Structure formats: C-alpha cells, structure tokens
Amino acid sequence: MKKTLLATAIAGALGVSAAAQAATVYDQDGTRLDVNGRIALGISGGGEDDVAPGEAKAGGTEFRNIYSRLGLTMSHDIDPDLRAFGRVEWRFNGDERDQSGGFSEVRHSYIGLESGNFGTVMAGNFDSFYNSRVVNPFDVYIDRGHEFSKGAGGDLQARGDSIGYITPNLEGFQAFLMAKHYTGNGLAENGESRSSVINTQGGVSYELAGLRLAAGFAQDRGDYPLSARGTRHRYDSRDQRGIDENIYGATASYAFNDNFSARLGYETQDSNDGEIDAGGAVEDWSGYDTWGLGMTYAIGQWAFNADVHRVSPDNEDTRTAWSAGSYYKVSSNFDVFAELNRADQGDITVSTGDGVEVEENSDNLYWLVGARYHF
C-alpha cells in the first residue's frame, strides 16, 4: 500500500520513537518487554504576541524541551490469534534540571487484547480514536500546525478513563468506537450534585493501494463545571469540556508513489445556539468549519511537510493558517528538524488601562528548530 501512505506521512514527521528504536529488554515464550523514548531539544520563537500592556511576554526566543518521552511496551501471545498488550509512557523535562521528580506527565497508560479475527479492545489512558484514525494524516508536525480536533489532537475527549474497540481489517474496511467516562464524584455546581458524563467517538476507514479514506465523529459534551478549569475556548487544548455539539470530520489521503503523498480534510462543529440564546458567551459556545490541504515529500534521509488550513469560526473572521516543516535523519536514532507555523489569528482589541482601546496583532510567524535522539 505505497509503503502505508509513506509510513503514515513519515510517521508523524519522523516522530515515532516507540516502535522503530525500541530496545527489547525481554523476549521469551511469547512475552516481550520493550523500552523506548526520545530526548528532544530545540529553540523556538514567534507565535503569540503580547495581547495587552503589562501582560507576560509570550513570543520571545526560548530554549525548550520538545516533548521528550520514556515508554514501556508489553505484550504476551496468549494463542496464535490472541495477544495481550500494555503500554505506559511518561513525559519528562529534557532541557533543564528538574528537582520535582523529573516526569511531568503520564502521557499513556493502557492495556488491551488484540485478535486478528475479532479485533482489538483496549482500556485506560490513550489517544483519541477520532484523532488517530480520522484526522491522523494531518497530525504530522512536531509542535504546531494541527488545526483539526479543535487543536487538541490526542487529548480530544480522551487520554484517561476510556474504553475503545477496533474491528478487524475486513478487506480494507475498519470501524472503531471509544468512550470516555467523566465521573460526577467530587464535583458540584451551584450546590447541586453532578451526574457522570460519557463522551463517545467513532468512525470508519477504508484503505486500498495508496488511498485511505476515513470519516468519524466525536461527542463534545461538557465534562467539567465552568468554575473547574478557568475559561473555555475551542482552541485551548488544556480545556476540553466541549460545547455540547458533536464534531464531524473526514479525510482522504493518497500516496502517489513511495516519495509523495497528499491529504485533504474537512471538519465541522455546530454552534450551541441554546446556550448562546440563554446568555452564554458567544466565544464559549460557537462552532466552526475547517478545510485542510497538505502534502509530504520524502527522499533519502529528508522529509518535508506543507499544509494550509481554512478555518471559519462562527463568531470570528475566517483565517488561513499554514505550516511547513523539514526533517533530516542523521542516523536511525538521530534527526534534526525545522518547522514554521502561521495561525493567522486576527487582531485583538485591548485596553491600555486609561480608557483607550488599541488593536494588537495576536499572531506572528512561529518557528522551531531542534534535534531528537530516539532510543
């Protein structure tokens, strides 16, 4: 299948440290344990500008940790058609001394069963199926540039307390479904107890030769009271309460040959008119439409990405965002990269504190250069 769509767009722009460079610690009698990860460092600048006088600087040059990770992958062959598996992965700070324990996040932690005849079931803390199986062709940038999934990527109504199922591959067709549970225990709003919430997402995909088609949905219902995590905004990946309207998306990708692939995508979410009519802030409850077009070209040790997105929020001006990246594989374990992103956010009206309102541009060209060692 054209090397599986250029190895899924060069595996997220050379981003898979887990599978390719994993060190096998134990492999005997059908039981296997691998250790893998990466140390990634870079320098970035640009992006968000100061949005008001007196606010903290946001877009200056910075030496950064670029999502360094350490992971363990486990598996056990129960019989020729059934395999048990598990994975745990941590993020750690790779750019500076950290006396708080080092690890900043448990990124993944899940277990599951995989069968060629019956499919795969998994439970725990894993990425959004909608992101990994529908809009994944666009998730190729190391840092910024993924405009689908509300900019949340794998965090979209996922990453914890989740159960998922993927059917076997039926002559190119696969279906998938997952659910994330939000307990109401310990949460109260306006003095009232809250019920549990379950958000589901799912879809179908079809692959034939170099072509891959996928379509799906993700429920985006509220999962926290408004007071629990600050303000709500659909482009803030730290806050995934949702606007109580489903997200729908579809992508098509095609590998023309072993070097070049292209991708096209569309995603939409309706505004929650009921909440807006009831007095809710428009920016909190508005939907959007997003189109995306991109390509990946790989030759020798080099890979290149270029994407453009047309984002049309219901309550804001339409913007055209673009991203580009180049990646060079120095060796099987070491690569260097450079990325650019322009989100094309509009001007923001701010107050100077003396009653005068001014327009400030909230977005500059964002750049990132760096290197990664995979193990």
UniProtKB/TrEMBL annotation:
Membrane topology value: Multi-pass membrane protein
SUPFAM superfamilies linked: Porins
Domain Porin, chain residue ranges per copy: 8-345
GO biological process, one term: monoatomic ion transport
CDD domains: gram_neg_porins (cd00342)
Position of the signal peptide: 1-22
Record text on subunit structure and interactions: Homotrimer.
Cellular component terms per the entry's GO annotation: cell outer membrane; pore complex
Entry keywords, A to Z: Cell outer membrane, Ion transport, Membrane, Porin, Signal, Transmembrane, Transmembrane beta strand, Transport
Record localization: Cell outer membrane
GO MF, any single term: porin activity
Annotated protein name in UniProt: Porin
Key word Transport present: yes
